Amino acid sequence: MIFIVEDDEDISQLVEYALSSKDFNTLRFENAGAFFKHLNGGEHRPDLILLDIMLPECDGLQILKKLKDHILHREYPVIMLTAKSSEIDKVKGLDLGADDYITKPFGVMELISRINAVLRRTKKTDSLPVLGYKNIQIDDSRHEVLIDGDKISLTYKEYELLHYLILNKEIVLSRSKILENVWGYDFDGESRTVDMHIKTLRQKMGLSGGHIKTIRNVGYKIGD
What we know:
The chain has 8 helices and 12 strands. With 224 residues, the protein is an alpha/beta fold. The longest helix has 15 residues, at 108-122.
């Protein structure tokens, strides 16, 4: 799945058509708000993001920084699309973590070649390390959680919440830190949201839900 973040409809439609002809699935977003809303709550995950720099309100470099600062989104490959061609602009994007950079106007075949090259370069060929805690195992390749070998059904946010807790096992995480890293930068809800998701997550995990500890007046951790 390729995410296209581009406010010029003619360009985004052209890119979408070219990619679909090569059997890529795509989703288009015109601005940062729509992009992050889907990234933080939508069904699909990107294999690669085509990110325009010149976007309204929040530009591509700001979006890129948010992605690379986010523990759950930093691994997504990003190709920057921009009309800017100066060396300093390219350096900024690459220093922030972009995988490649292509300037407009660009040829469709060149873009597809660049995409394939980045996908080959960033594809994980080794087995994913086991992520888990005690009898809890997370299979990122299948987006599944197993407890004592049995799959449990979680919502997308419950999965991300458990994933984040286990990534930081034995570390006390404040509610605000959890909101920032699981719900995203623009989430403006209250900390009660975290509490409710922890409650339902514990219920679905049965006895293993006891591994999630409440740290009074601070937040939560997974550990002893």
